[in-house]
Write a structure and sequence with these properties.
Radius of gyration: 18 Å
Strand content: 15-25%
Oligomer: single chain
CATH topology: Aldehyde Dehydrogenase, Chain A, domain 1
CATH class: Alpha Beta
Number of helices: 8
Number of domains: 1
Distance between the termini: 28 Å
Length: 239
């Protein structure tokens, strides 16, 4: 177990908030594996101040990311998919340890992440708009799609990483940033994925805050995301 955690950058004590920097000044929680009752690690969750700082930085990152050309955004997602390939076995094992799945299902979930990254890379060169016939001479009507803003992603414990990727990969190529609230039952998988995404962003020059993370409870994080007027879209999964 320990070599897997170390390779994924999981320490004994972990900040659970990321917006280009790691922090967590809220409640400290212990993650216990449902498989054998072992303590895996501790996580410092988000405080009210952490929430405000995260959404502000995600909005700031969006304003720069939205003017980045689509194929350039796709390159970051392509490298994210490759990084997930490199860590597929370890991340699959961590998903199994946290959620109680068998390792084959954990690795299968990571494969879904890789697959959606591949799809999103193709979409980054196909952000089309329509050219429409006009009734006026020498005149053209053109449709152009614009990035939306921050996408909040709230995921359930039974699919701790795949559902995030379905949203985050497509949002990224469309020019949007994401703020992820994972289940408090599977926080380590979310931290591991965010660390992978952070490394990729630093390699490509993208602002890592496009993949922000907020681990916390319904009152501190979940309800605030739902009520926040700065967030135009929320994708939420419940079980």
């Amino acid at each position: 177990m320990q070599p897997v955690l170390e390779k994924l950058g999981i320490a004994d004590d972990n900040p659970g908030v990321f917006f280009g920097e790691w922090r967590g000044s809220g409640t400290k929680i212990d993650k216990i594996s449902p498989i054998d009752g072992r303590r895996l690690a501790s996580i410092h969750t988000a405080s009210n101040e952490d929430y405000d700082a995260t959404v502000a930085r995600a909005q700031e990152a969006f304003l720069k990311w939205r003017v980045t050309p689509g194929p350039v955004r796709g390159e970051t997602v392509r490298r994210l998919g490759n990084a997930l390939r490199d860590f597929k076995h370890e991340l699959g094992q961590l998903v199994a340890l946290e959620s109680g799945k068998i390792v084959a299902e954990g690795e299968g979930e990571v494969q879904e992440m890789i697959d959606i990254c591949d799809l999103a890379v193709g979409q980054s060169r196909m952000l089309y708009g329509l050219t429409i016939q006009s009734e006026r001479p020498n005149h053209r009507l053109m449709e152009q799609w614009h990035p939306l803003g921050i996408v909040a992603v709230i995921t359930a414990f039974n699919f701790p990483v795949a559902v995030w990727s379905w949203n985050a990969a497509l949002a990224a190529v469309c020019g949007d940033s994401t703020v992820w609230k994972p289940s408090e039952k599977t926080p380590l998988s979310a931290i591991a994925v965010t660390k992978i995404a952070e490394r990729v962003c630093r390699e490509t020059g993208a602002d890592p805050a496009i993949f922000a993370l907020l681990i916390g409870d319904r009152k501190t994080v979940g309800q605030k995301l739902a009520d926040d007027r700065r967030i135009p879209l929320i994708s939420a999964t419940w079980v």
